[in-house]
Design goal:
single chain; 308 residues; mainly alpha; Transcription Elongation Factor S-II, Chain A; 12 helices; 54% helix; elongated; nucleus; transcription; TFIIS_N
Length: 308
């Protein structure tokens, strides 16, 4: 019996795994080359487009062009100084800031009414404020105040005249004293302050008639002096009002006369100092006041007989 032939196993070659870096580097290099080629192609295409556009320009029409014959407007040269330097560029800024007007016809009715209301409010804010103001029923409040002050002035003047007549007849002068509360109430109204010192209405002249001495030289009642001077200290009386009314002369009389009481005299002195301060251009700040100084020389002091 013959022996069977021996079968040898076939040896397989080991499969080598691809190294991780080699293939990737090659692929990356291919990608970079492709991107560079595309960029170069795009630049070439753009250059060819520009050349094609320039090739369409007809150079023959520019053969007779002379830059010396260009018509340029000849303007006089402007000297640059500080004033002109500040104006440079302002016109352009104004043009940029101007809004383009809108056509109201294209807007809906509600928007048009709102725009019209906004424009009316803007115009009202731009106008200067006026001192005159009216009620809803159309009554001019300032005119009403002027009429009330004018009526008070006439009544005060008449009361001063009646007191003078009463003094000449030997009767008590009570007309001004009876009107005093009403006069003080009017002088203390802050809403009438401009009309109270108005030289045209000249209510301060009637106040002067209340404060000045009577024909027999007697002074008015103490209440009249005190209350009216207190009210005068609250009013912004200017030079025009002082000249028109002449009340400053009466206040000077109270500062120089010996008949008024000490409190009334001090009030008159404060009024006179306050009224003359703007005229003499003096400050009301006590820290800025300048006081007169004099050097003391004992040689010029009169020797007393006791020590002589």
């Amino acid at each position: 019996m013959s022996a069977s032939p021996e079968i040898k196993p076939v040896e397989e070659d080991p499969v080598q795994a691809p190294t991780p870096g080699a293939g990737d580097d090659e692929a990356q290099g291919v990608e970079e080359t492709t991107a560079a080629d595309l960029d170069a192609a795009d630049e070439k295409d753009n250059g060819s487009d520009d050349e094609s556009i320039l090739s369409e320009v007809d150079e023959a029409q520019f053969e007779d062009f002379d830059p010396e014959n260009v018509d340029v407007e000849d303007r006089p040269q402007l000297a640059i100084d500080e004033d002109n330097l500040k104006l440079i560029g302002r016109h352009k800024e104004r043009k940029r800031r101007e809004p383009t007007p809108e056509d109201d016809e294209t807007l809906d009715p509600a928007t048009r009414r709102r725009r019209a209301l906004d424009r009316a409010m803007d115009e009202a804010l731009k106008k200067p404020t006026k001192r005159r103001f009216r009620k809803a029923d159309g009554i001019d409040l300032e005119q009403m105040a002027d009429a009330e002050i004018e009526d008070m002035r006439k009544r005060m003047t008449h009361a001063a005249q009646m007191d003078a007549v009463s003094r000449r007849e030997g009767k008590p002068a009570m007309h001004k004293l009876k009107m005093l509360p009403e006069v003080v109430s009017l002088l203390n109204r802050n809403q009438y302050v401009n009309s109270l010192v108005d030289p045209e209405i000249n209510l301060l002249e009637a106040v002067k008639f209340f404060l000045e001495p009577l024909d027999d030289g007697s002074l008015p009642a103490y209440n009249i002096q005190r209350d009216l001077m207190t009210s005068l200290a609250k009013l912004p009386i200017n030079k025009e009002a002082l000249v028109a009314s002449g009340i400053g002369k009466v206040i000077v009389f109270y500062t120089r006369s010996k008949r008024p009481e000490a409190g009334i005299k001090r009030m008159a002195e404060r009024l006179l100092a306050e009224w003359t301060r703007p005229i003499l251009q003096r400050s009301d700040d006590y820290s800025k006041r300048v006081y007169q100084e004099a050097e003391f020389d004992p040689r010029y002091v009169t020797q007393s007989p006791k020590f002589g």
